[in-house]
Specification:
7 helices, 35% helix, 2 domains, Alpha-Beta Plaits, alpha+beta, 4-stranded antiparallel beta sheet
Length: 189
């Protein structure tokens, strides 16, 4: 069995695409996933399964569409991949703290997780939007965002749609919490 984290895009945000986590857990258990656990209302699910990523992504998206009538992108990471996201953070703790100190409106550090790695030509489109207030680093399928003001006011964050394919964004605290939740599960890959 492989431990996965599923990150659902755009549910329970601003009163739209509402899914109760208890109903989501039940749906995924009925779909054959085991040890299903959710974290906060924004669509973070930890579970175990024998299927591969592509098959699971399709299965979860189809089940959500059938049950809730919503077309939701699902981004999956194994526990090992989640660990690499945390361990390979390209920003130092000091850089993150400095950005946080400049941001009076909340979180400053995020990860945008893509289903497929961004193409280099697509990633180049973000360069004009990075600068004094916004910075990014790409590692594989993930883009780390260091923002010195609200994500709502970030030109860089607003332009992530220039990169094609399914993606979702989580703040660093959520990523760290998800990683801590998968740590106690054994065996790890």
């Amino acid at each position: 069995m492989t431990i996965y984290t599923a990150l659902l895009r755009g549910i329970n945000v601003g009163g739209k695409n509402k899914i109760k986590m208890a109903e989501l857990r039940q749906l995924l258990e009925e779909a054959g996933l085991t040890r299903v656990e959710t974290y906060i209302q924004s669509g973070n699910v930890i579970f175990e399964a024998e299927d591969g990523e592509e098959k699971l992504k399709e299965k979860i998206e189809n089940k959500i569409r059938e049950k809730f009538g919503l077309s939701v992108s699902v981004i999956l990471r194994t526990s090992g991949q989640l660990e690499q996201i945390i361990r390979n953070c390209p920003y130092t703790e000091r850089e993150r703290m400095e950005a946080e100190a400049l941001n009076s409106e909340g979180e400053s550090f995020y990860v945008c997780l893509f289903h497929q790695a961004p193409l280099e030509t697509e990633a180049e489109r973000l360069k004009p939007f990075a600068g004094e207030f916004d910075d990014y680093r790409i590692q594989g399928r993930d883009i780390y965002l260091l923002l010195r003001h609200s994500i709502r006011n970030s030109k860089l964050a607003a332009k992530l749609s220039l990169i094609g394919g399914p993606a979702t964004v989580r703040n660093w605290k959520t990523m760290e919490k998800l990683y801590s939740l998968v740590l106690y599960r054994a065996p790890r890959e």
